Amino acid sequence: MDQSEESLCPSNSKVRQALIQYYKEMFEALPEADGLYLESADEMGGCQCSVCSKPIDAFGSKQFGQAQLSLIQEIMHEIWRDHPQARLAYTVGYNPHGKDPAYYEAIRQMRDPRLEWMEARGSWELPGPKGEPWPAPYFSRHLMGWRYHDDKPLEQLVSDINRMGKEGWYGCISTFSPGFSSGSFYKNIPLPTDQLPYVLTYFAHREATWEPALSTEEMRQRVQRRFFGKEGSEQLGKDLWNLRDLILAASSGVWGLNPSGAWAYIGCKPVSAEALAQMDQIKQHIAQAQAGASPKTLEGLSLMTRAMDDIRKYCNKKP
Q1: What span, in angstroms and rounded, lies between the C-alpha atoms of 240 and 111?
Q2: Which has more confidence, 251 or 105?
Q3: Nearest Cα residue to 268 out of 242, 250, 280
């Protein structure tokens, strides 16, 4: 039987044929496509049918994982008949395979350069040959890490990508989801994803993935150069960095705001007096910098001013 209402049994022959034909038809309709991104249904749990539940070793591995991987191989082999350039990105790292070394060993043996893997649950290690933890890149040179960096301090973004670089990950994928975990104060759609905190998060992600060895201090220096140039004071770079943190703190409920954050688009409860005081200081620094500022610096100052104005507009001013 199927594992849930949301997903299908990968051991079922009818399910397998239906999915193979579905993706083949997709490529026939869109032959220019680069490839497929498939998110496994593991988030819903593993299939509990008698075939998928069958143990295949003494370490906890089940037939479920083998059926999933053989299915995606069959899907791609069928597509590759007519579209050999097609690539596949597939999500791994979910709980149903937390004690499934045979699953990750099968992935380790799948060395076709057109296959890529995305670890989707923040794990640095995965089950090795006997179930013991091994660094995730051991299983594939094409393994990427997915992280929620849009709602985390930039220091964590730098630290995570430092580690990925040292361990040999294929890359890092950071979430940029407008209106969710992102500090968005906007109620209109499309959301202005070129504004704070997006633009600064994106810049830091780009710089870190291009050069994973960057330290936090070196990242701060790059932020300074990008948004304010040489003539802007170092304080402005610090203010921009801190303002991003203020926005994220507001959206996450640190100041007693709606704990659901940007899902409710803020606007319900007050910003703290401490945060308002910090913004007042930043505004003073902006006023001091505006006279004689270059176009680059003025652009950075405008970005900060817009963010603070929107905080005051969409949040109650009274602490």
Answers
A1: 44
A2: 105
A3: 250
